[in-house]
Amino acid sequence: MSFFTKVARTAFNIKARAPARWYATEASASTSGLRLSFVLPHQTIYKGVEVQQVNIAATSGDMGILASHVPSIEQLRPGVVEVIENANATKKFFVSGGFAIINPNSSLDINAVEAFPLEDFSPEAIRANLAEAQRTATSGSSEEERNIAKVEVEVLESLQSALGSK
Amino acid sequence: MFAIRPVVANATTRSVGCQHRNYATLKEIQLRLKSVRSIAKITKSMKMIASTKMTRAQKTMEIARTFGSTQTALFTNADTKPTEEGTTLIITVSSDRGLCGGIHSSVSKASRKHVQEKPNSQVVVLGDKAKAQLSRTIRNNIRLSFNQIGKATPTYTEACAIADTILNEKIEFDQAIIVYNYFKSVISYEADTIPVFSESTFSKSGNFDAYEVEDDVLENLHEFALANSIYWGLAEGHASEMASKRSAMENATKNAGEMIDKLTLTYNRGRQAVITSELIDIITGASAI
């Protein structure tokens, strides 16, 4: 008899404790925003920070990512990564390339090679470098050099248009 | 007086012998002391250099660790498993410089163990020290080796160049493991591995269907992941090396200090003995007159 009451009590205890555990998981679930990790080899820009939305320029097209986006692997093209932290804080970074991985647990991992805030670029320097790169792209001495210059032109042109649209 | 004389006579003959030996050893001790002192100076400055380099390397390593672990999180999330029959590429990350404890043997040992498990795996060695150690036992598995590693804090460009060379050499592999020294703390490190999977292995992974992927992206992703993981390994290995070098040099300085103390003691004792015996000589000489 006492055995049964003990079992019943344990069962009750578990039941009584259950809401506390449920509450804890609920709490983390309720803040299920998009967890962003935005990392570079030499700098960590975001590490598991909750943000509202991230807009990226992927090779398959520009996309906006919200929480519980369908999991996917996207290659970034040179362009702007826009991080909307909340309703009134938005940061724009220009990335030269990398990968964005949206995981099933609603976390977004962006690995980029280089990224800088958009306002740190000087339009004059871009123009000068672009002219230089365009010259090398057409009249470079070796095939490899021309190809490198072509990539440079691509990056700089998209950088210029990103700055222009700001 | 009469009683003293024979004793004195004895003492003189003995002290002459002693004196002779003492002078020689004193000179030797002095030389020894000098060399130990200069070694201590060298190891001390090496320790200083290593600790400044370590602080810098540790900062780089922490960022690289976040970068690398973000990359490898994909494989964990996608539940990628190494294929049993596939070929493995082992990338051993070490450096060119010695005098840093068991850094190189730790990664060499770990790589050798992996080769023992899979005898047909290929090995790429970064750094001369590990290459020397590995070419003794698994010379035939080594496909490529790089040197000039670990002179300064590793850069991403270096990692890219290494990854590029590996890919250009057409080394086929289904999975790569990067064997590096995991930086546990400033006084401890441990050989660990970072996995990198080829696109075919990755597309077989358990959770792969959950992801939306365009086909041409996978190859790029694989190359990118390889470079990133190599960078992580390099940065982490460099930090461990500097930390280990620091403690090795600290121990060397401490040992040299102990040696200096001991030698100084012997030297002073010897000098005192010489002085005493000279004094005895003078006094007995004076008392004989």
UniProtKB/TrEMBL annotation, chain A:
Recorded GO cellular component terms are: mitochondrial inner membrane; proton-transporting ATP synthase complex
Molecular function (GO) terms for this protein are: proton-transporting ATP synthase activity, rotational mechanism
**Could you tell me which residue ranges the ATP synthase F1 complex delta/epsilon subunit N-terminal domain spans?**
34-106
Q: What is this protein called?
A: ATP synthase subunit delta, mitochondrial
Pfam families in alphabetical order: ATP-synt_DE_N (PF02823), ATPD_C_fung (PF21334)
Membrane spanning stretches: none
Known CDD domains for this protein? F1-ATPase_delta (cd12152)
Tell me which family the UniProt entry assigns to this protein. Answer: Belongs to the ATPase epsilon chain family.
Q: Kindly list the places in or outside the cell where this protein is found, as annotated in its UniProt entry.
A: Mitochondrion inner membrane
Alphabetical UniProt keywords: ATP synthesis, CF(1), Hydrogen ion transport, Ion transport, Membrane, Mitochondrion, Mitochondrion inner membrane, Transit peptide, Transport
Q: Which organism is it from?
A: Gigaspora margarita
Give the signal peptide as a residue range, or say none if absent: none
Q: Which residues form the F1F0-ATP synthase subunit delta C-terminal domain?
A: 121-161
InterPro entries linked to this entry: ATP_synth_F1_dsu/esu, ATP_synth_F1_dsu/esu_N, ATPD_C_fung, ATPsynth_dsu/esu_N
TrEMBL record, chain B:
The record's subcellular location field reads: Mitochondrion inner membrane
- The protein's predominant localisation is mitochondrion
Return the similarity comment.
Answer: Belongs to the ATPase gamma chain family.
Q: Keywords for this entry?
A: ATP synthesis, CF(1), Hydrogen ion transport, Ion transport, Membrane, Mitochondrion, Mitochondrion inner membrane, Transport
Membrane topology according to the record? Peripheral membrane protein
GO MF terms listed in the record are: proton-transporting ATP synthase activity, rotational mechanism
In its UniProt entry, what is this protein called?
A: ATP synthase subunit gamma
| Keyword Ribosomal protein tagged | no
State the CDD domains in the record: F1-ATPase_gamma
- Mitochondrion among the record's keywords? yes
What high-level taxonomic lineage is stated for the organism?
Answer: Eukaryota, Fungi, Fungi incertae sedis, Mucoromycota, Glomeromycotina
Q: Which residues form a coiled coil?
A: none
Question: Which GO CC terms are listed, alphabetically?
Answer: mitochondrial inner membrane; proton-transporting ATP synthase complex
Q: Which NCBIfam families does this UniProt record tie to the protein? A: ATPsyn_F1gamma
Q: How does it assemble?
A: F-type ATPases have 2 components, CF(1) - the catalytic core - and CF(0) - the membrane proton channel. CF(1) and CF(0) have multiple subunits.
Matches recorded under InterPro entries? ATP_synth_F1_ATPase_gsu, ATP_synth_F1_gsu, ATP_synth_F1_gsu_CS
